[in-house]
Amino acid sequence: MLRRTFLAGSLTTLTVGALHSTDAAEATVTAVDEDFLTLLTNANQTQIPLVLANYQNTSDSIRTVARKARRLISGYVWGRSSYHHDASLLAPLQWLVEQLASRQHDDGLYDVGNLHSPPDSAFAIQDVCTLYALLDADDQAATQGHRAILATVIKKAGPALAAGGVHTPNHRWEVSAALARTHHLFPDRRYAARIDDWLDEGIDATPDGLYSERSSTYAAEVTNPCLLTIAWLRDKPELVDYVRRNLETTLYLLEPNGEVDTTASRRQDQKGIRDVWWYLTQFRELALHADDGRFTTVAKSIEQRGTGELGDFLAEVLERPELAAVLPAAKPAPTDFVQHYPSQASARLRRGARTATVFGGTDFHDIPVISSGLSTNPTFFKLRQGAAILDSVRLSPQFFSTGHFRSDGLRRTGPSTFKLGDEVKVPYHLPLPKRYRRADGRYALTLDGRFYASMDFPHRPKQYRSLRTEVTVVEVGDGFDLTFELDGDETAYAIELCFRAGTLAGVEALDAPGNYQLVSGTGSYTVGSDRIEFGPGSGAARVPMDPGERFTYLNGSLTPDGLRVYLTGRTPNRQVLRLRTS
Fold it and tell me: What's the pTM?
């Protein structure tokens, strides 16, 4: 058995090339990537003392318990680890395994924030299946008791996962992958049938290679690895192409420092920073499967950077040794391009160390609420020059508390030119027509667009105040020009530029910490030798950024972290913001 032989740490060659095929003729023998194995081994050996120092943390979720056990078992079964068959790991492992059993409900499910949750249980059960498989392949008498408990947990969870429901798109694939692992260890046709039910709904991927949640977090941590697991265990090689296309798209979302652009996400990462390390084994697997040297380049860059919990990948490689094969020859990943993604109304531009994002694809115009699962990010432009990072450009008019400008789509009007635009109309409501009037004055509680009131708004004639905004983004030789055209009712507006830590010059500090204003001339922002210049300034009038009543009513905030520079003006107006990099 390849896995058992590999666990001993003695193999120097592997049979690969047909990762998702049963055709042995397609396979070839290749060398083991020793540097990769050493990296994962050392990373796991760093994790194990941390687990041992804190494994009895009663506040850990069941997913954390399972992951801690996985880290211990990876070192225990791996022949090259300094913890190989280390008896000191057995008692902590016993405690963790018993937690997996004792915290499991009678119906086979766990509470992880959500109660009796099939999808949250599936995350843990995937790890539990890996634990059992690795210990079973290692086949040590000292772990027979651990394996018996794990087998009981898996068998108890399987029927519940095969009968239960989910919450989000990626949960379908998480549950299916957990069932694929469970079925592989303890076959049950109910498990295979439920996998086929979920798959029969179709994979939620766009022609752009993006999944419906548009989230790097859920692509890297859930959908991609789950589809690869199902492909491997259920002989469904057609699923691999969805992952390949997603990784193709990710090539163009990568930043030079290893971050992944998440501006268009519909999930939590639309407001955070995401690192590419989560994709390591996916890029390795698809580099081998598709013989793609660009994927090799990304995988090797992750390994060289060495950030993140890389030790967690050791279990994957011990389970599937073919992932440790020497990768195809590296080829350059794209660094000079303009990529347009119509499915999420975004564009990415890169010229070496300079990258930019243009975004007009929020869900706000179709579903005007703030909620998890919706894209509501008001950032419509980002720019980087090496270490100098302009994290967001936003626009906020003082217009009936309607909040930030959010473009209603994105139009590409030239090779490197994009147009964003929106029109906001706010009504004043006139008296109801006679046929809708009530003597008791009790009218339906309805939505004005910004708030609710017992006014029967839909039946009222209206007078509108309007504001039209268009932003044209043009790439020029050493940066970008952003032209703002605002027309309609007269009001004030503010443009906000939010930079990461660095040195600002040419701006005036405002009262609030981290706030500055460019009154005149050109400002600059530098980090080391990298520089972004911006301007011209447009006066000293101070105009607050208004996040809108949907936020302020709940004491919410849309103030980004960083150094915030403001330029202000009044409508109607045409204003050009010049951004230059060096």
Answer: 0.95
β-pairing, 410-414 vs 388-397, is unpaired
DSSP β-bridge partners for residue 566: 496, 517
Give the C-alpha distances (Å, rounded to integers) separating 497 from 50, 149, 217, 401, 561. Answer: 40, 55, 25, 21, 11
Could you tell me what percentage of the chain is helix, strand and coil, using 3-state DSSP and rounding each to the nearest 5? 40, 25, 35
Residue closest to 131 by CA, chosen among 105, 150, 109: 150
Cα distances (Å, whole numbers) of residue 485 to 535, 548, 574: 16, 21, 5
Instruction: Scan for tokens 């013989």, then name that residue.
Output: 291
User: CA 460 to CA 234: how far, in whole Å?
Assistant: 58
In sequence order, the 6+-apart residues with CB closer than 8 A to the CB of 474 are 414, 416, 417, 480, 481, 482, 483
Cα–Cα–Cα angle for 546, 547, 548, rounded to 5 degrees: 90
Place of tokens 């008296």: 431
pLDDT tens string 392-426: 999 999 999 999 999 999 999 999 999 999 999 99
CB distance 158 to 108 below 8 Å: yes
Q: Distance (Å, rounded) from C-alpha 10 to C-alpha 54?
A: 32
For residue 257 the two structure tokens come to 């420092």
Q: What is the band of 3 on the pLDDT scale with cuts at 50, 70, 90?
A: low
More confident residue, 15 or 172: 172
Closest by Cα among 69, 184, 94, 103 to 144: 94
Q: Let me know if 577 is exposed, middle or buried by CB neighbors in 10 A (0-12, 13-18, 19+).
A: buried
Q: Please report the pLDDT score of residue 248 as a whole number.
A: 98
φ, ψ (nearest 5 deg) of residue 295: -65, -35
Indicate if the pLDDT at residue 14 is higher than 90. no
Burial environment of residue 284 by CB neighbours within 10 A (0 to 12, 13 to 18, 19 or more): buried
Residue range 69-120, pLDDT digits in tens: 999 999 999 999 999 999 999 999 999 999 999 999 999 999 999 999 999 9
| Rounded CA separation 242/211 (Å) | 9
Q: What are phi and psi of 365, to 5 degrees?
A: -80, -30
Which DSSP helix (H) or strand (E) runs through 348? strand 346-351
DSSP letter for 209, please: S
Beta bridge partners of 576: 483
CA atoms within 13 A on the CB side of 38: 4
| Contact indicator for 482, 381 with CB cutoff of 8 Å | yes
**Dihedrals phi, psi of 117, to nearest 5 degrees:** -100, 110
Residue with tokens 């919410």: 556
Nearest one of 32, 160, 162, 183 to 105, comparing CA atoms: 160
| Six-digit token string for 394 | 């936003």
